[in-house]
């Protein structure tokens, strides 16, 4: 019986199946990665054991290293991403490392123009930064007129392709964890005035899922705040004291 960690270190058929699951579902919960990968190995008739050193951290690190060695020449990468809708969950996801993200290359000219208008609504003329309201998206002016049928179909496509995620409660859309990884270089390179989290150093792209300190007026991801206060059992203090 092979060690699950040793199997993870050498790219093979189980890694290909794992990558297919990531593509189909947009990601795999990091908290489930050990049992998911072991189930894949069992299905592939590769019985495995889970040694003490095979933790979520060590297994995900081994999988990322072995998979990326194969897919990076194709401008693809597997990484750990945070879904800011949840306080304490991360995902193993696949994203494009090409400039601007791979998904913009598959848009039609009309879709690309519409995407840019929505992008501006989310980050330039935003009421809630990083969020696109459904009504605004459908009624945006396009070619001097509204094209709600095109807009609605395009929104549906973006959700199905795991580029956008719909917040049902607010009838709005945000970028998925995968898309955030692809778009962060663009958002940093251009002056969108997006604050950086003092805990994880990533951009706080979605304003709704962040907290602003009343003392120093700096912002922090809700997920980082949760980890800082509840997981590490520390009192939250302002940015000056964090740094």
Automatic annotation (TrEMBL):
<dbReference type="GO" id="GO:0005634">
    <property type="term" value="C:nucleus"/>
</dbReference>
<keyword id="KW-0833">Ubl conjugation pathway</keyword>
<dbReference type="Pfam" id="PF07574">
    <property type="entry name" value="SMC_Nse1"/>
</dbReference>
<comment type="similarity">
    <text>Belongs to the NSE1 family.</text>
</comment>
<keyword id="KW-0862">Zinc</keyword>
<dbReference type="GO" id="GO:0061630">
    <property type="term" value="F:ubiquitin protein ligase activity"/>
</dbReference>
<dbReference type="InterPro" id="IPR046349">
    <property type="entry name" value="C1-like_sf"/>
</dbReference>
<dbReference type="InterPro" id="IPR011513">
    <property type="entry name" value="Nse1"/>
</dbReference>
<keyword id="KW-0234">DNA repair</keyword>
<keyword id="KW-0479">Metal-binding</keyword>
<keyword id="KW-0808">Transferase</keyword>
<keyword id="KW-0233">DNA recombination</keyword>
<keyword id="KW-0539">Nucleus</keyword>
<comment type="subunit">
    <text>Component of the Smc5-Smc6 complex.</text>
</comment>
<dbReference type="GO" id="GO:0008270">
    <property type="term" value="F:zinc ion binding"/>
</dbReference>
<dbReference type="InterPro" id="IPR036388">
    <property type="entry name" value="WH-like_DNA-bd_sf"/>
</dbReference>
<dbReference type="GO" id="GO:0000724">
    <property type="term" value="P:double-strand break repair via homologous recombination"/>
</dbReference>
<keyword id="KW-0227">DNA damage</keyword>
<keyword id="KW-0863">Zinc-finger</keyword>
<protein>
    <recommendedName>
        <fullName>Non-structural maintenance of chromosomes element 1 homolog</fullName>
        <ecNumber>2.3.2.27</ecNumber>
    </recommendedName>
</protein>
<dbReference type="GO" id="GO:0030915">
    <property type="term" value="C:Smc5-Smc6 complex"/>
</dbReference>
């Amino acid at each position: 019986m092979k060690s699950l960690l040793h199997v993870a270190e050498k790219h093979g058929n189980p890694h290909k199946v794992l990558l297919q699951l990531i593509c189909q579902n947009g990601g795999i919960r990091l908290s489930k990665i050990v049992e998911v990968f072991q189930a894949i190995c069992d299905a592939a008739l590769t019985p495995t054991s889970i040694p003490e050193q095979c933790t979520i951290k060590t297994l995900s690190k081994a999988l990322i290293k072995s998979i990326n060695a194969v897919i990076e020449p194709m401008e693809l990468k597997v990484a750990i991403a945070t879904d800011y809708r949840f306080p304490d969950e991360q995902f193993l996801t696949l994203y494009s490392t090409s400039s601007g993200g791979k998904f913009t290359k598959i848009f039609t000219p009309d879709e690309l123009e519409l995407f840019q208008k929505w992008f501006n609504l989310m980050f330039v003329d935003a009421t809630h930064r990083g969020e696109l309201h459904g009504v605004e998206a459908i009624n945006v002016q396009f070619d001097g007129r509204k094209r709600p049928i095109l807009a609605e179909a395009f929104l549906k496509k973006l959700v199905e392709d795991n580029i956008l995620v719909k917040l049902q409660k607010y009838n709005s859309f945000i970028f998925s964890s995968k898309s955030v990884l692809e778009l962060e270089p663009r958002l940093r390179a251009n002056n969108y005035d997006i604050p950086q989290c003092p805990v994880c150093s990533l951009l706080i792209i979605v304003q709704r899922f962040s907290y602003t300190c009343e003392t120093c007026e700096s912002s922090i991801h809700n997920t980082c705040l949760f980890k800082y206060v509840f997981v590490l059992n520390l009192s939250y203090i302002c940015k000056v004291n964090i740094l």
